[in-house]
Amino acid sequence: MYQQDWILREIELMGAAVRQILTKILNKRPDQALDLADEAVGEIMGSDPSLVYALSPEGVLTMLSAGGTVDEFRARALGETLFARAEALDAMSRADEAALDRSRSRALLSAVLETARDEDVKRIREVLGWLDKE
């Protein structure tokens, strides 16, 4: 029970981080949004976020699949954060980097969609829908 409560709290925190990133973009502060996204990526991965940005979408997925199975919590959190980071990069006219973050996000979220809990499927599909509109 304690572990489940901790996981739910972590999901809430990551959702709050993504909302803060998107709010900064709406407030015409994409530079601050990018800083928040980088901080969140570092927190999710427990490492320097530049490592994630140096990897292909498949490489990031492999990194989160140590032991043979995808770490669903981190893959989902990272996928949503990379989506928000891509929005910040677009607002800063950095389209190539944004496209790569969208590809990473799509790979991560697609990988966890089939095994996600029912309550998470709707949100994952929603973000994937936004990615498909880009």
Summarize the structure.
This protein is mainly alpha-helical and about 130 residues long. About 80% of the residues lie in helices and about 0% in strands.
**Share of residues in strands:** under 5%
Biggest sheet features: none
Annotation, overall tally of beta strands: 0
Multimer state? single chain
Q: What structural category do the secondary elements indicate?
A: mainly alpha
Radius of gyration: 14 Å
- Our count of domains comes out at 1
Are there runs of 5+ residues with pLDDT below 50, and where? Answer: none
**Strand and helix order:** HHHHHHH
Number of helical regions: 7
What is the CA-CA span between the terminal residues? Answer: 39 Å
Taken from the alpha-carbon principal axes, the silhouette is: globular
**Helix fraction?**
over 70%
Average pLDDT, to the nearest integer? Answer: 86
